[in-house]
Amino acid sequence: MRTFDFAPLYRSSVGFDQIANMMDRVLSNEGTIPSYPPYNIEKTADDAYRISIAVAGFSDADLSVEVREKALIVSARKADEDKDKTFLHRGIATRAFERRFHLADHVQVTGAAHADGMLHIELERQVPEALKPRQIQIASDTPSLQKDVVEAAAVN
After folding, report:
1. How many CB atoms lie within 10 A of CB 39?
2. pTM (2 decimals)?
3. Roughly how many angstroms between the first and final C-alpha of the chain, as a whole number?
4. Which domains, from first to last, does the chain contain?
5. How many Å apart are CA 105 and CA 123, to the nearest integer?
6. Exposed, middle or buried, 91 (CB in 10 Å: 0-12/13-18/19+)?
7. What is the pLDDT of residues 52-87, one digit of tens each?
C-alpha cells in the first residue's frame, strides 16, 4: 500500500489542515478496521440523519454517548456479571467497545434512544442563518446609474 506525505500541504496552505488530517486518517494503514458492533447510517430527511448501532446484551447504564471535538463517541463497558456462568457456546458478544464518528460542521446530536437491542442516535445539520444562501431582489424599474460621468459641456 502507498503512503502519502502531507507535509508539503501543511507548509503551503493555511486553514486546510482539517482536510489534510481527514485524508491522512483515511489513508493511514492501521491494519484492521474495527467491525464490532455493526451499525447503519441512514438519512431520514434533508438535514437529518440516524446512526443505529446493534448493542444486544448491553443495558442503558452500560452505554455511553458523548460528543467531543467534532466527534461522536459511542462506548460500552459490560460489568463482569458472567464470571460465575459456564457457557457451552457464547455467540452474543458483549465485549467492551468504542466507536467514533467524525461529525461535519454544524451537525448536532439531537437525541439517543435504546430499544430492542439497538441504539439509535439522531443527528441534525443546523446551519446558522448567516451561512444560509439568501436571494437578492433585483429591481427593474430604477434608471441606470451613471456614476462618475462628466458632462461634455461642463468640461469644455
Report:
1. 17
2. 0.65
3. 77
4. 1-33 (no CATH), 36-128 (2.60.40.790)
5. 12
6. exposed
7. 999 988 888 899 999 998 889 999 988 766 677 888
